[in-house]
Amino acid sequence: QVQLVESGGGLVQAGGSLRLSCAASGTIFSINVMGWYRQAPGKQRELVAAITYIGYTNYADSVKGRFTISRDNAKNTVYLQMNRLQPEDTAVYYCNTRQSGYVYWGQGIQVTVSS
Known about the structure:
The chain is built from no helices and 11 strands. The chain has strands at about 1-5, 10-15, 20-25, 35-40, 45-50, 55-60, 65-70, 75-80, 90-100, 100-105, 110-115. By secondary structure, it is mainly beta. Strands 2, 4, 5, 6, 9, 10 and 11 form a 7-stranded mixed sheet that branches. A 4-stranded antiparallel sheet has the order 1-3-8-7, with no helix packed on it.
């Protein structure tokens, strides 16, 4: 079992920044990809960014150039630095990973961007 705990969300004005963190704990032996998803009210959950163990990254087009994903493998932690936030970035953000065929999600953290 892997537990994911997110932190760092909150309320910010448009143009501001937030940094999300997600710490993985439990029985960890082969986590490769860690990622962030988000779900806005009335919309489907979508991938925001993902990163492999060796640092390859993938971003949604809507966040390229504004968000940066990174990870600290020694701490089993993934980060999402969000700059130039816009009201359309308002959503619940979820940390995600998978191991041995199982998919794990964090509890979600609210990010609200006011205009």
